[in-house]
Amino acid sequence: MGFLTLNDIHHTYFTKTSATPALRNINIDIKEGEFVSFLGPSGCGKTTLLSIIAGLIQPARGCAMLDGKNTGKTDSGIGYMLQQDYLFPWKTIEENILIGPKINGTLNHAIKTETLALLDKMELRNVLTSYPKQLSGGMRQRVALVRTLATNPKLLLLDEPFSALDYQTKLKLENLVSSTFKTFNKTAILVTHDIGEAIAMSNRVLLFSQRPGKIHKIFDVPENLRLLSPFEARHHPAYNELFQVIWKELESLEPEE
Hints:
By secondary structure, this protein is an alpha/beta fold. Among the domains are: 1-31 and 44-76 and 203-217 and 251-257, P-loop containing nucleotide triphosphate hydrolases (Rossmann fold, 3-Layer(aba) Sandwich), CATH 3.40.50.300; 78-153, no CATH class. The protein is 37% helix and 24% strand. Helix 5 (137-149) runs parallel beside helix 6 (167-183). The chain is globular, with a radius of gyration of 19 Å. Pfam families: ABC_tran (PF00005).
């Protein structure tokens, strides 16, 4: 059994007049410290699966187990980072990043020092007394990452956190996130529509089929790419080779007109 195990997960959305299958027969084992990307057509259930892993949705069948515990029935130590930063606009950046430990009662001098050091690593120490509206989108996402890491989660779920950023900022943030996760040996799952991002940041890329979402194919990212930063990986010949393979496989999933 992996650090994170998804066992025979099925899910269907019901309304008064219809039933829409979202996920079918999802079985995955993810190792501790692994970075995995979910890639696939729009509407294939990637975000639904992320919500099930987070314990926000109970699957119709199956379960998600993190470190031997059902994620839907316990405080399993999962951090969730979204496309929108959801910082509290009336609180300073320092107050925002410390809100998690404060709420769960773990805030002390050591945790505060570690969190401020992480903010410094993100090149944001000078914004402690600022408010979110005074920061750029990329800066707010870095703050959101620090806030997520402040509670020391076992698993991080990233739902297209870079998609609203300009390309240069996106590449810089990919590098920061990747190096930070490697430093702290964090396990992470990234939902993305960007093939390049998935390859540059991941150990494995899981390609989902059209709705109802199933795992169509799993791609292992070569070790020579995994040892590089995301920016460096994008310039390696192996990156282009894998990009073309995944691109063609993704195209094959598109419905014929």
